[in-house]
Known about the structure:
With 379 residues, this protein is of the alpha+beta class. It is 54% helix and 10% strand. It contains 13 helices and 10 strands. It is globular. The relative contact order is 0.10.
Amino acid sequence: MTTLHWEWPAPGPCDLARAFEAxxxxxxxxxxxxxxxxxxPELEVEEVRRAVGPLIAETYSVLARRHSEPYVGERRRATxxxxxxxxxxxLVRLERTFPAxxxxxxxxxxxxxxxxxxxxxxxxxxxxxxxxxxxxxxxWGVGFHFESAEDGDHLARAILRDAARGLAADLSDLNRILxxxxxxxxxxxxxxxxxxxxxxxxxxxxxxxxxxxxxxxxLEQDYSQKTDLRYDTERGLGRQRGARVQITSLTxxxxxxxxxxxxxxxxxxxxxxxxxxxxxxxxxxHGRGPFHVPLERELLARLWSAIGAQADVRELVNAFxxxxxxxxxxxxxxxxxxxxxxxEPVRELVRLWVDLSALRSTRLLRAFEDRFGQDSARG
Length: 379
C-alpha cells in the first residue's frame, strides 16, 4: 500500500538526529543504486523506503524511469552532500529549548499536526508561534519541550516531513538542472554555501515574522533565475508564486554590482541586501525616495536610535552588515531564533522595502508582458 507524505514517519517516538542519519543513509543508498542502475530494486527495500519517505522515494523512482541516462558524476555527488548538509542543519542542530504547549485542536487524531497549528510558549512573556515558525527555528538550533512526550514527537515529525519535502523538491530540480548542464565546469556550483543560506534564512524569518509572506524558492529558480525567495504582499500581488526576491549579504559595492550584472531583467526582481537598504534610506533622507509612499520620519528616528545616525551610504551599509552578522553569530535567546537580535526598526525596514519593491517589480513585469508577451518574462 502506498504511504502518503502526511502518514510518514509512522506514529511513535521521533528523534530528529537519528531520523537524519536514517535519511542520509537512505539517500546515499539510492545514489549508489542510481550509479549501478538499480534504483527500483533498492526502493523495494523496506528499510530504505522507511528512511527517506514517500516524496524522496518517488523522486528517485521518476529519475530511474527516464529514458535518458542520468548524470551521476562529481557535480552531482558534491551537490548531494551540500543538500544533505543543509538538511542536517534543519534537523540535528539543537542549542536551546523553550517550554511550549499546542493550542487546542492543533493535533488531528489521524493526521497529526495541522498546517495552521500554533504553539503557545508557556514562559514569560507569553508568546505564540505558528507551526511554520517553530519548524524554521530548528535551523538556528531552537527546539521546544512539552509536558507530553507525544506532543514533542508530533512536532518532530512535522519538522522531519518539512525537511524531507524540501529535500525531495531540491532533488527533483537537481535532476532537471543536471540533465542540461551535466558535468560542465563552466557552470557555477548549484547550491550556495551554508553560510549564504543562513543569511537567506534570516531574511525569510524577518519577512515571516507576523504572517507567512515568503517561501524559499525552488532550487531550479534559485540557480537559473537568481531567485532566492518568493514573496507576496498581504493584499496579494496577483502572481501565482509571488514576487521573485534575490538576497545577498555582500557589502562590497563592486562585488555587489558584479552580482547584479549577472541577473537578467533585474528590475523585475526584488533586490534585498545591506546596500539596497542603505541606498533607499539615504535617498529618503535626501528627499529622493523611489516609492510613492515616503519613509515615515518616526521609523527613521527609531532606526537612528537603534543603529546610530550614519553620515553616508557606505556607513549605512556597514551598519546594516554588522547588525545582520551579529544576529547570525549570536546564540539564540528567543524561540524565534536570531531575528530578535535584529533591532525592530531594521526588521520593519526590511519588510517595508520588500513589500514596496514587490509592488514595483510586479508593475514593471506586467508592463513588460503587455508589451512583449508573457513568454518574454519569467514571473
